[in-house]
Design goal:
- This protein is mainly α and about 220 residues long.
- The protein has a single domain, classed as Up-down Bundle (Fumarate Reductase Cytochrome B subunit), CATH 1.20.950.
- Helix content is about 70%, strand content about 5%.
- The chain is elongated, with a radius of gyration of 21 Å.
- The mean pLDDT is about 95.
- It binds protoporphyrin IX containing FE (2 copies).
- The site of one protoporphyrin IX containing FE has 25 residues, from α1, α2, α4 and α6.
């Protein structure tokens, strides 16, 4: 008789961190799209309207939340008491397994890649990539914030990101920040598709694992 066993894959901290990151990014995309191309000024007397101001306020607020979540995720990667998983982000360095996974996914071979780490090689590459993308959008975001307001914590962080401002100029930094947003939108589509696909094909509870922390496995 086959039994379904559930094992814990994600700690509560990782799950909360994941959804705080997702929420921030969704709000940052929404407000960012408005900042780039204000599609409405809302009805009424212009003197009483402050829509762009609110959009910028929430953009920067959730930008700070994303930065906090990013630092927290890096901390967990090294110091989590459940699983310090920084090594899992480098699973792609096992080139043999990487090739195995590519061949398997391209239906060239039916030999599945070995699950030596939390992530498969291609997954680790995608997750390491998204971490660098988050870092890049935070750094360019702080150049944009700091160039208009240089007091307090923002002013302090600006000291470290100012060289980028000086080297590239504000227009290029804003352009990079904007282009990065489209990469986030692309990532979101592929990532959600992969999560739904894995959940439906492998029936291993992947999708809900980011909610309840558990993965399902068939055992004889
Ligand atoms: C996934 C995360 C983010 C996305 C998708 C995003 C998106 C955008 C977009 C599309 C713009 C408009 C650029 C343009 O005018 O063409 C923008 C502007 C801006 N972003 Fe972000 N952003 C993100 C994260 C951040 C972070 C972390 C910060 C700061 C901590 C930040 C601060 C700013 C600032 C200050 C502006 C300029 C506002 C203005 O021109 O008045 N952003 N963002
Ligand atoms: C732009 C938004 C998103 C980002 C940046 C993101 C990032 C990540 C990262 C880095 C991981 C690996 C675990 C970790 O290190 O925390 C992960 C796993 C996961 N995410 Fe997301 N995610 C996003 C949106 C979503 C959405 C909207 C869903 C829901 C449909 C989702 C479902 C999952 C699931 C089910 C996993 C576990 C899959 C696995 O075993 O690798 N994610 N995500």
């Amino acid at each position: 008789m086959e039994k379904i066993v559930s094992t814990k894959k994600w700690s509560a901290a990782i799950r909360i961190n994941h959804w705080v990151t997702v929420l921030s990014i969704l709000i940052l995309i929404g407000t960012g799209l408005y900042i780039a191309r204000p599609f409405t000024a809302s009805a009424g007397d212009t003197m009483d309207r402050y829509l762009m101001g609110y959009m910028r306020f929430f953009h920067i607020l959730f930008g700070m939340l994303l930065s906090f979540a990013f630092i927290w995720r890096v901390y967990l990667a090294f110091f989590s008491r459940f699983k310090a998983d920084w090594k899992d982000f480098f699973a792609f360095l096992d080139f043999k397994n990487l090739v195995k996974q590519i061949k398997f996914y391209l239906l060239i071979s039916d030999e599945a890649p070995e699950e030596k780490y939390i992530y498969l090689p291609m997954q680790s590459l995608a997750y390491l990539g998204i971490m660098f993308m988050i870092l890049a959008i935070i750094v360019t975001g702080f150049v944009l914030t700091g160039s208009g307001f240089d007091k307090g914590l923002v002013g302090f962080i600006y000291i470290f990101v100012k060289p980028l401002h000086t080297m590239l100029g504000l227009a290029t930094v804003k352009f990079l920040h904007h282009i990065l947003m489209w990469f986030f939108i692309l990532y979101l589509i592929v990532h959600v598709y992969m999560a739904l696909w894995t959940n439906a094909v492998k029936k291993d509870g992947t999708l809900f694992s980011m909610i309840n922390g558990m993965m399902l496995e068939k055992k004889k």
